[in-house]
Structure formats: C-alpha cells, structure tokens
UniProtKB/TrEMBL annotation:
This is Thiazole synthase. The active site is at 105 (schiff-base intermediate with dxp). Pfam families: ThiG (PF05690). It comes from Solimonas marina. It is found in: Cytoplasm.
Amino acid sequence: MSAPASDALLIAGKAYHSRLLVGTGKYKDHDETRRAIVASGSQIVTVAVRRVNIGQNAGEPNLLDVLPPEQFTILPNTAGCYTAEDAVRTCQLARELLDGHKLVKLEVLGDAQTLYPDVPATLAAAETLVKDGFDVMVYTSDDPIICKRLEEMGCVAVMPLAAPIGSGLGIQNKYNLLTIIENAEVPIIVDAGVGTASDAAIAMELGCDGVLMNTAIAEAKNPVLMAGAMKKAIEAGREARLAGRMPRRRFASASSPIEGLPF
C-alpha cells in the first residue's frame, strides 16, 4: 500500500504530489536535462537565473522551451549571489521574466570555495523579499535557531543543507535536522549534499518534507537512471516515515512470538 493520495507537499498554498525538487545545471545539454527531470517525476524545477537563459538573453536557447511553465513550477534561484542586494535584484529580474512569478529560492553564499551560506546576508535578503511580496524558499545552514527565525520572518519553506553544495557527502547532522523538523510549521526541504538514493531516503525517513538536488543526478554516470532512482528513494522514504519504523533494540527479538506456547 502506498502513501495516501492526500499526502501532498504544500508550498505557498499549492499542492504537489512529488516531494523531489530538482535543479537544471551541469547536464550536457537541454535534452538530457529534460529526460532526467521527466524521469525524476519532479514538479518543481529550480533554475539559476544568473547562469541559465529563461528569456533574458534573446537569440540563445531558452530552458523554458524544454521545461515549459505550463508543465513545471519554475523555481528561480539566486545561485552565484554573494550579497543580499544581488540576491534581491536577481529575484526581481526573475519576476519580470516570468510574468509576475512570486515563488523563488533564495541563497546567498559566503565564499566560492565552500559555497556555504552567508547567514546574516540571507536573513537580510529574506526580510526584503518577503516584504516585497515574494514567496521565499530559503537555503540556509542546518542551524535550528536560524531556520526558525527564517520561518517566523515569513519564508514559505526552509531548506537546510545536508552537507556542502555538490559534495555528495549525505546528511552530516541528523540531530540538527530532527530539531529543525520538530519545531517547524512550514515545509523543511533538505537542500545540498545528497549524493545517492539512500541519502534521499534517509532525509525523508527523518521527517523532511522534501529534498532538492542537482549534482547527485546531473553528475551520475547515467543521469536519467539516477533520476528514476531518486524518485523511488523519495517515495520509499516518505512511506517508511508514514508507516512508522520498528523500535531499535539492543538485543535480538524473535520474529515469531512464543508467548502462550506449551513449552
């Protein structure tokens, strides 16, 4: 028996049946991008406005030709921004290019080597964007205090990292994630650090509402096949969370009960 049909991911008032969000960078071409994203089953596709053409460069291939907004929710992101001001301007550009689109993914990076978030700048940008009417999904550190503050500020989803962007290291601090999840009233979506299907399943088993990934799929030897694996991992992890795992025990426990047997 699978998860109930009513088990939807709600973001900014819209329901999604897929809890896998995917990026569009690092593929060899637009054809591979589309094939992988279709295989993933994802409905929310994030696009780096500063790196990918979604209409700002006339005459160049437009990603929206292969991932039309009628079929996918396009999630513009501020990848490559290192100041709050640049991030805000990038979101405003995306809103213009996408005819008033309000849903954005905010990330403000601290340095080019680690791509770790600049948390004070992220807070400043989030405050400005929320006041400007954006629905902000925000990438941040796995700090429970900061995650709660971003939620209280009005972000529609909080996206703590599992490990550094593009590292593929998997979830490095399960206990921080658990604390974030237990105290959240908005979706918590793991963003960054997933390397393979088991990482995605663990995130969902912990209680995350979804997972966003790019490199884990795009840099796989077979991106389309990996996209399908990630789809299954997200679904399996979610179902395991809803089912409720058995308790952990220090010692063995017989598979068949022996109470009441005459020996």
